[in-house]
Input
Amino acid sequence: MNRMFRLMPAAVLFLALFTVFWAGCSNDEPVGPNGEGSAIDLMAIISNPLAPTPGQTTQLTAQVSGTGSGASYEWEVEGGTLSSNDDITVMWEAPTTPGIYRVFVRASVGTAVDTMSKYVMVRNVSIIDTGLRYTLYPNVIGSTLYFIGAALGMSDDNFLGFHAYSINDPSSPIDNISSITVDGGYEFTFYEEALLTSSITLGAERYRLQPMNVFVFPLLGGSAKAVSNNEHTGSLSTARMNQNLHPSASSDQSMVVWQHVKAGTARDGTDDLTNIKFRFGTTSTEVLTSSKDSTLYHGIYMYSYYRNIKPMITPDELAIVYFTDSTGTYEPCVIPLDGSEPVTTMQHAIMVDGNHGIFYYRGVTIGENTVFQWNPTIPTQVGFIDNQKNFCLFDYHAETIEIVSNVGRLDEFVWDETGKMAAVNESGVIVVTPGGEPDTVFVKERFSDDVIGLNWSPGTDNKRLGFRVVRKGSSVTESFSALVIYSPADGIWCYASPMIRPPMGNEPSLSYPLLRVAFDDSGGMYAPVPISGSGGSIKLYYSH
Output
């Protein structure tokens, strides 16, 4: 009589139940006919660790189910050495050279046969010791690694943001200036030779709204520039300080535009003045907008306030784009640039009629947490994820807004140099050129899994896509992070690290670009990984 069987020892069963999806690399290839009276089904090859180091002894396990008895196995590996090749679990001494290697298993019972192969990445993984509690937002510029970090926990009363560092001197912040104390920041943009920040100055824990200013810090030596003239004053009675936020600069940082919030006397901020400011070089600051209107009603002036937010200098440096809620919905506005001079006489909101603009009629809503990323091949087009997780394309020159409907609801996205987009949606990771059909390159096993920190390697040769996957299991032993690298050239994704435990119970509340991975020229990948323990930390892992 035939009987049902699961060809997994008890010790392997526990592992397989929560690591089916974390087996190694993509490209399952089950083939082979089933014989009469017996059946066998190879479901996964599980590699433990997920990405072995060169020469490491690794356990390979076949996860199978079927009917019949007396199952047999035959393993083959593309490199390294098998201690045996005829059991459900075998030990594999991984090759001594980093790379991607194929492992193959043939399972049979009676006349039923099934085969499967997997790719496993052999990879060195180390932790970059910066001496900081949090290390994130890696940027490789030239051959130097830059990052931001902090020594204090984010829940500490004295935590006032992050500082920027170079790996060449991880104990001395780049973002310091002799004329005033910089206490930290949350907005950082790295250029080839400079760092643009919105930083807290003269901060204190007691403030409800910390004073913030815009700075340009040179990466290669030289004097820092205080762009916003250290406007840190405000109302002590309401504990609200002036803030200079969301800076955007030209490629050489000679032009800088930012959002200036002048604190009003109302405790809830309803009479704050929120305007767009601009500065070229060391010239005087220009205020480009107005955020206060008045109406004379029965001899009394009634005031209304609205906000002008998220200004950007366009990549072609021909305009400033920002957003205003004067009609009740944030709508895009454009100010042309004539060289280094904003042409305010041609300043306009992109309206459809006298009451509303193109965002309102398309149902697009944004806010100060919206991340805008310019298409590198279309300098007039910016992509963003709106408040409903729609992926949107706005062209300031054509004055159009499009919701891209075939990519799903997005959590994050990133462009490569060719205008191809990688994004995280409900199912996993997709790669798509806007206007084309998306290709799903990584599928989540569980709906609760997170994919975080998506980023492309630089250049166009040997292209790679990296990210971090987070499993939120029902217990500590089922929860972990793992790094992943995808190669578009051959359509293979592989784990680029072992399981990293224990993960934070909740991911830190940060703008997703700060958690992005970064590649160096040799193909190594830096990845910020939040880890639980001692109140939580973010370690910078290097997979190479």
Notes: The chain is about 5% helix and 45% strand. The radius of gyration is 27 Å.
